Amino acid sequence: MPIMLHEASCSHSPDRWRWAGPLLIAVALTLMLALTWNTWADALVDFGREAYVPWQITQGKVLYRDIAYFNGPLSPYFNALAMELLGATLGTLFTVNIVILCSITYMLYWLLTQLSSRLAATVATLFFTSVLAVGHYMPLANYNYVAPYSHEMTHGLALSLAAWCLLLQWRRHERRWQLAGTGALVGLTLLTKVEVAAATALAATIWVILLAAAKPRPNLCRDLGAYFTAMLAVPLAAWSLLTLQLRPLEAALGVAGSWRWVIASPVAGTYYYRFVYGTLNFADNFNFTAWWLGAWAMLIAPALLTSWLLVPPRQWNKQFVGLGCMLVAIPLLLTWEKWRWMNAARPLPLILILLLICSIIATRREVRARSSKTEQYRLWLERSILLLWSLLLLAKIFLNVRVFHYGFGLAMPGIMLVVI
Hints:
Number of helices: 18
Mean pLDDT: 85
Number of strands: 0
Strand content: under 5%
Distance between the termini: 14 Å
Helix content: 55-70%
Structural class: mainly alpha
Largest sheet: none
Order of helices and strands: HHHHHHHHHHHHHHHHHH
C-alpha cells in the first residue's frame, strides 16, 4: 500500500545531488531567520516569563520555592545555565534557540529520509523552515522556535526527535547503549510539557517493546531493562538535585511539573482551554474540518486521476501526480485571499488516523507474508509508530488543529508525515 515512498527510492537519486536538499534547506532557514530577525518574541505575553524565570535563577532564586512555575524543571535550568555562561540577555536565548532550531531541522530531515525519498524529505523540511519554524500569523508572537511561548515545547520536540533518531540507530545496529540513550532522552521529555512527554513516552515505549519482543527472552529482558532504567533514572536524578534546595515533597511536585495540573486541576475546563481543545465551538470546528477535508480531497483527486489516465496501473509516476496537484493548486493559489488558509490543517487528525490504519494493515500483511524480522516490516512499523506519535501530540488541539498558535509545535510532526 503506497502510503509513503519506500526508503529504497533514495538510492535512485544520483550521489551528486545528495547535498542539494540539505543546502536548499539551509538557505531557506537562513533566509527566514533574516527576514524575521528580532521579531520573534512578544513583549508582553508569555515570553517575558521565559526570560524572567531563568534570569531569576541566575540571581540565586530557587524554582518552585521562590518562583511559582507549572512545568518541569528542565527548560528553566537549561536556559539559566545558558545565561550564566553567555550572559543574561535576550540575545542569549535567541542564539541558543537558533542552534536548537538548526538541530531540529537536521534531525527532521534525517528522520524523514529514513521513511521516504530525499526529495520528499526536502519538500517536507522546506515546509517546516518556511511556514512553521519562525512563522508569525496572529497578533501575538512567541509561536515559533526562536522565541517560543514555552521552551518546554521546543525542548521537548528536540529531545523527542533525538530519541527517534537514536532509536532508529539502535534498530539498525542493536547496540544497547543506543537504547539506553533513547530511554534517557524520553526521560528528559518527562521534565518538559505533558503533551509532548506523554506522546513521546507512550509511542517510544510501544516501539521498543515491539522490536525487543522479536528477540530471544534474555536479550528482551536486557533491552527493556536498559530502556526503562535510563528513562526512570532521569526524573529520579532531577528529584535528587531539587532536594538539595527543596523539601522532598516539593521536589517531587516540581519534577511532576504539568502532569499534576492535568490530573488534579479544573484548568482544563476553563474557557481558554475549551477553545484550544475545540470543544467550545464544536459545530464551527466540525464544519471547518469537513469543509477542508473536502477541499483536500478535491486537490488530491485530480492528481490521482491524471496519473491513472497517463500511466498504466501499478506504474504510477510521481511526476504525473505532482503535475495533477499543480494543475489544481495554481488556481487555488491565485484566489488564496478568498480561502481561510489558516484552517487548512483542521482535517489533520482524520488524515493521520487514515494513514495509521493503512500503515498498520500493511505491517500486518508483511508479518503474514514473511515475518517480523524483515526490513520491510520494520519500515512499516517505524511509519506506524511515528504516525501514532504525531496523532498523540494533537490531543490538546484535536478539534481545533492549526499551523499557527500551538500548532507550530504540536501539529508539526503530523504535517511532515502527511507531506511525505
